[in-house]
Automatic annotation (TrEMBL), chain A:
Keywords: Membrane, Transmembrane, Transmembrane helix. The keyword Glycoprotein does not apply. This is Permease prefix domain 1-containing protein. The keyword Transcription regulation does not apply. NCBIfam families: perm_prefix_1. Signal peptide: none annotated. It comes from the Bacteria. It comes from Fulvimonas yonginensis. The chain crosses the membrane at residues 100-121, 159-181, 187-207, 228-254, 260-280, 292-315, 327-347, 359-381, 393-414, 434-452.
From TrEMBL, chain B:
It comes from the Bacteria. SUPFAM superfamilies: Winged helix' DNA-binding domain. This is Helix-turn-helix transcriptional regulator. Residues 16-89 form the Transcription regulator PadR N-terminal domain. It comes from Fulvimonas yonginensis. InterPro entries: Metal_resp_DNA-bind_regulator, Tscrpt_reg_PadR_N, WH-like_DNA-bd_sf, WH_DNA-bd_sf. Pfam families: PadR (PF03551).
Length: 455, 118
């Protein structure tokens, strides 16, 4: 081989070594520069002593020592690196060119959401007396801005951006032009289901042109789960803040609760969605995702609880007590099970062989299906007695949608365990199902009110 | 003859500080100097020097700066600080105490059992 050919292969070898070492969490880019300088100097010295490039490389790497031990030593010295820093951007690591711009846009939009929440007050709508109007419009205070944030961040093509506002305009018309009866069930249903439908619009913006791909939709699923966790944490923080503020002001005889109820709580709740979304975006590559960790923890526990329920039901032979809310309760149970499944799927290495947790998930899904079947059969037997109220039809429809999802998942999962299907088939099934939820949400919001006389 | 790992770890601080007390230096050159001075008896694993340097930097015994070497690559040079010199004096006293103790013992052993004290 000629000299240039050798030089290239040495550079390639060094580059490979560098990227291998760079994957270690405890070893930062600056350390890589330092270690690489060392390696190159060593190679040069060995070369001067008469070794060929590849021999010199091998010896130099060997002298550098075992990489696991080395990264352990670095981790011992720099233990803070294992706790990756969240909000503070690392200047040395490069990454996005202007991290603060992103943060500023997100916080600007959060303020805008807070202002939007107070906008109806200009039209004489009060939060305490017109709560139903606020509830129906709740998603419209926040989601258009969130969609805008992702449209900006992902540099969405105009062809997509053009269509996104349509959903929000339609929702705005629906929420305010339908003659809802005050305090009626269909109004509450619309308020609950509009966000589900509009979340799809956010997802299309989030995926940034990758919505048609399984991976793009799966990223949106991950984002949604992390957002939920961050939002909950921010909510806890906000509650602590408010409690202490109320306490110190009460100590000097000033009542701040009215201010909380009309300003801090609604504006904070709206703005926090954007702040939480930005946090998820910012830390996406920074720390381990939380949702999969929690699902891993709770999948066996939920499975155990459901099996205990089924066992007790069989053993005692008790009938399911058909209360008003039992169907909604079982709907929520299925939602939890779908989430547990979805988030464990989202974190699973799709090439890994089936293992303990896969069996655990199947047990969870099958026991949830059985538990739901028990409840459904009890309800079906007496549905004619109860009549078809909008709430009951919505709850029943949701139950069917979730049941179909879980049944499909169970079949695909079993096929995967027996080596008849790929894990990605299961992923595709779950991500293809996302529009079904949105479609059902839109159906309930759009069709139910006129169908049930806006009551 | 191999020097044990514990002894290597214990002696790394005074050795690095003493080499830097001679002149500012960088990782590869420090290792080369150790190899020369020990006549090859002390073979540090190259990579392990860097966590040691970083620890001394965190403790304030040495400070680092980036320079561009003649090769055109960025290189991290280390310099001993006043606190590092104090530490070196302290370490030196400790090692001299250990050394004096051992010397005394070798001397006694040589008289008691000449065969053992070689």
């Amino acid at each position: 081989m000629s000299i240039p050919g050798q030089a290239v292969s040495l550079e390639q070898q060094i580059a490979q070594w560098r990227s291998y070492l760079g994957r270690r969490q405890a070893i930062h880019a600056v350390d890589l520069v330092e270690l690489e300088d060392h390696l190159r100097e060593q190679i040069a010295a060995l070369g001067a002593a008469g070794l060929a490039d590849d021999e010199a490389f091998l010896v130099a790497v060997k002298r550098m020592g075992d990489l696991d031990a080395l990264s352990r030593e670095f981790a011992r010295e720099h233990s803070e690196r294992l706790w990756k820093q969240l909000v503070v951007p690392r200047s040395e690591s490069g990454g996005s060119a202007i991290p603060w711009l992103d943060a500023m846009v997100a916080f600007g939009l959060a303020v805008a959401a807070a202002v939007l929440v107070k906008l109806p007050a200009l039209f004489g709508l009060r939060l305490d007396t017109d709560a139903d109007v606020y509830a129906r419009n709740a998603s419209l205070f926040v989601l258009p801005l969130l969609t805008g944030y992702f449209a900006w961040k992902r540099r969405l093509s105009p062809a997509i951006v053009r269509w996104l506002p349509l959903g929000f305009v339609a929702a705005l018309l629906l929420a305010n032009a339908y003659p809802f009866a005050k305090g009626g069930d269909t109004g509450i249903l619309a308020a609950l289901h509009l966000p589900i439908a509009l979340w799809l619009v956010v997802g299309i913006a989030y995926a940034g042109g990758r919505w048609s791909q399984v991976a793009g939709r799966m990223d949106f699923v991950r984002f949604s789960g992390e957002l939920f966790i961050y939002y909950t944490l921010i909510g806890f923080g906000g509650a602590v803040l408010m409690a202490f503020t109320a306490m110190v002001f009460a100590a000097i005889g000033i009542e701040v609760e009215p201010f909380f109820q009309s300003w801090l709580l609604p504006c904070g709740a709206a703005g926090a969605v954007l702040v939480a979304s930005w946090l998820v975006e910012a830390k996406q590559s920074v720390i381990e995702n939380m949702a999969p960790v929690l699902t891993q923890l709770f999948t066996p526990l939920f499975a155990a609880a459901l099996i205990a329920f089924l066992g007790a039901w069989l053993w005692t032979g008790r009938g399911v007590d058909i209360e008003r809310n039992v169907l909604i309760g079982f709907d929520l149970l299925l939602v939890v099970v779908v989430c547990l499944l979805l988030y464990s799927i989202s974190a699973r290495d799709r090439h890994a062989a089936p293992g303990f947790f896969d069996v655990m998930r199947i047990v969870l899904v099958v026991s949830a299906l059985l538990a739901d079947a028990v409840a459904l059969s009890a309800i079906a037997a007496r549905i004619s007695e109860f009549g078809f109220s909008p709430n009951r039809v919505a709850a029943l429809g949701e139950n069917v949608i979730l049941l179909v999802n879980l049944a499909g998942s169970a079949v695909l999962y079993l096929r995967f365990l027996r080596g008849r299907a790929l894990f990605s088939d299961l992923e595709r099934w779950q991500t293809n199902y996302l529009p079904v939820y949105a479609g059902w949400g839109a159906l309930v919001a759009v069709v139910f009110p006129p169908a049930f006389g806006y009551l | 003859m191999e020097i044990s790992k514990d002894l290597m770890a214990a002696s790394s601080t005074p050795i690095v500080l003493a080499i830097l007390a001679e002149a500012d230096s960088y990782g590869y050159a420090i290792l080369k100097r150790v190899r020369e001075l020990s006549r090859g008896h002390m073979e540090w694993t190259d990579g392990m020097l860097y966590p040691v340097l970083h620890r001394l930097e965190r403790l304030g015994h040495i400070e680092a700066r980036w320079e561009v070497a003649e090769s055109g690559r960025r290189r991290r040079y280390y310099r001993i600080t006043p606190s590092g010199r104090d530490q070196l004096t302290l370490e030196r006293r400790q090692w001299e105490a250990v050394d004096a103790t051992l010397r005394g013992l070798w001397h006694l052993l040589a008289r008691a059992a000449p065969a053992l004290a070689r």
